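2024-03-11 09:14:02 DEBUG pipeline.ingest accepted 1 chain
2024-03-11 09:14:02 DEBUG pipeline.ingest length=320
2024-03-11 09:14:03 DEBUG pipeline.predict start
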Amino acid sequence: MTARRDAMTDPAAVARFPRTILPTACIPWTAQGDLDAPLFVELVRGRLANGIRHLYVFGTAGEGHAVTESQFDRVVGSLVEACVGTPDAHPMVGLITLSAATMVERVERAMAAGIGDFQFTLPGWGVLTDDEVRVFLRMLLPRFPEARFLHYNLPRAGRLVAAPLYAELAAEHPNLVATKQGTGDVLRIGALLTHAPMLRHFLTEVGYPYGCGVGEPGLLQSLSSTNERQAWCFFQAGVERDLVTLAAMQADYLAMLDGLLASGGAGPHMDGAFEKMMQKLVDERMPLRLLPPYASVSDEGWVSYKAWMRQRLPHLLPDA
């Protein structure tokens, strides 16, 4: 069994990215499929006002898979605009495309707009081998040494990157700084935090409590987005390794997940549909629609979810 690395004695165990909460910024689309820029800016500024300093667009929930190049540029510009008044804000832009060359072009444009942090997926038309993963990262990361990159590790890419390969890639690329993991698999989480501690691994509410007993993960915010104060309490309980508080709060979030899925109507839906349901609890102006051809949750489904939350978990609502 590999001993856990100690950041006090092993420099390689010091993570390259802050330990914090990392939420997505849902994108409000008009009925014509255009960005509602004023609402988007206001929503992002609301997150910043609640203490969030690292947030991203264009993950799966942010519909990074569906945007055109012009939509990409408009959203990036609005994200930068929203963060102008918060000098210590670090907006992150996701890169989801089958073309590595397109990713490079998007990074160039986003950096010119003022972005320094990026989140990327592996191109998924064909499942990349380990050697192809190495080639892909060499195409992207060394070209932008001043930028920081987080890898979004998800099954839609056809494969998951395991801890030993992460450790190898991190040794080659100093600007590979973090990963995003949706897993609740304790073996995978333990391996990531033990074998690749130089990367900050962001875990959802499902995996975060276990991760805090093994290492120092960040919180990939999803279910906890409906109440920022409670989210910070959950995050801090992890920092302090208060396992009793973590377990109790996680139980609420898992119950919330059951209610969310039950209220979503006939699915399946893309991740972004459920993220927008939660965002609409925070601000009812958030439209539920996704970019076509993807179906979203109905207004009736959202009303059902809101009623369920008020009855079962009112302390997780934004006005609690």
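2024-03-11 09:14:41 DEBUG pipeline.report The chain has one domain: 18-311.
2024-03-11 09:14:41 DEBUG pipeline.predict end
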